[in-house]
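Re: that chain you flagged

S.,

Sorry for the slow reply, it's been a week of failed gels. I finally had a moment to sit down with the sequence you sent. For the record, here it is as I used it:
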Amino acid sequence: MFTIGSVTDIRRSYAQSSDDGMIDDKSIGSMLTVVNQLESVFIGTLLTVQGTRVNRFKRGIEDFPSPGDKVYSFESDNLTLFMNSITELSEAISPLTLGKYAIDKKSVANLNGDKFFQKHAAILGSTGSGKSWLVSKLLEEASNLDYSNIIVFDIHGEYHTLTTGEDGFAKYLKIAGPSDAELRNDLLYLPFWTLNREELQSIVLDRNDRDAPNQANRFNQHILEQKQATVADSADTIEITGDSPIPFRMSTLLSALKQDDEGSGVSSSTGKSIKGPWNGKLTRFIARLEAKSQDRRYAFMFNPPEETYSYGWLQNLYQMLLSTIQGETGIKVIDFSAVPSDVLPTVTGVIGRLIFDLQSWIHAENRTPVALVCDEAHLYLPTRDLITANESQPVRNFERIAKEGRKYGLSLVVVSQRPADLNRTILSQCNNFIVLRLTNGTDQSSVRTMLPDSMSQFLNQLPVLDTGEAIAVGDAVIMPTRIVLDKPKFEPDSNTKRFWNDWNQRPFDLGILQQAIINMRAQTYLTNEDDEE
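Prediction finished late last night. Pasting the structure tokens below so you have them in one place:
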């Protein structure tokens, strides 16, 4: 039987010698004794024999070591074998290999892929610590599986390198920009009719308006009537609700609301014309809805191509997001870099909710698990005190995924450089943490609150981790582990600019200025004709 521990600190100190003899004139050092101290956290017990089983690891300490006991360190091969065994890895499946164990660079650091994705995970680290490398390596390992199904929310467009070239292993998708007006295999539209009532109301309804209840009432009623009409025209016999994703026309909805707003009636007592029950109560609401419909930033939602109004188009949308056809990649990278920041929470929230809804309506035995990798999650999944009115509904969508997604085969991997700003509900549901260098004290404290007190000594290493070093904690690794990440085959486009060298070697390129201004005005990346030539 062996007690397994992990060394967390080594220090040298000096103690007064027990020798009470006279101090000689040689040196005052003769009074001091060097004391080398090693601190360790005990993880569990390795039982060489347990019944008919051999070399079994269990959590908890059977026998605490005593002074004078021998201490052994793992060699490379044995360390890899030991970590694989306690992480319950099977040789029949492809391991999730991220790098090497920091204590032995010849070892292989494997994680349990099932347990990593089953109960949500968080990848946290300051900017420049290696988060993008880690995400790229994680996706690269997942691409070795035949039917991996992962959707990456690429906020800054840095993972497009994984989708290019003959060896690219991910599919590139982009939220349609203001200048996009037709369907393409790489463009993603989210028509307004795919939103549920709460999502639509969060975009166009002002809860502070005194007529908000009347506006919500008529809005919901007309949407339901139009969806029922679409179902009737399609000869479908299903019963629907206002949240059912059924196509309808925004122009028809606006006409119906305007009729209510301008409607009149007849007095039963005098027989004279009077204002209708909704007259004048929907004016501001209609103006907000028209403004959103005409906002080109929302063109992917309120002005999608004509084909998206087809009754069967919803299946095409889901196929783009979830298809895992053999011979094609199941990893999809959605580029949000052209999406304005105030629209970003709405877009991410709708995609997350659409996938959750579909998974919940598939029978358990037929579900294919799906993982959402939320890069820069603090930008659209903020803490409660940072949430704006437009962000509350999208955040609630992801909170529901965090709390219930495991039941429906839907997992979250949240990636952030500011864990202190990240939604606490979502972070608290993560059972696996891979933490890279964190220098901010508030961010370190946020991570500490999510982990057991016994892990605190490991987290003391966070400020001094090198770039590409991480501490893995959670169900995927039964004991906290310091890992040196392997370099991914495809590096993300997130390299830090070399300010000092570039200032000395590269002038500002005036040739790109005109195109950059055009892109800024169009709120999308347009093709530079000079680049095409």
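What I noticed first: The chain has a mean pLDDT of 85.

Talk soon,
D.
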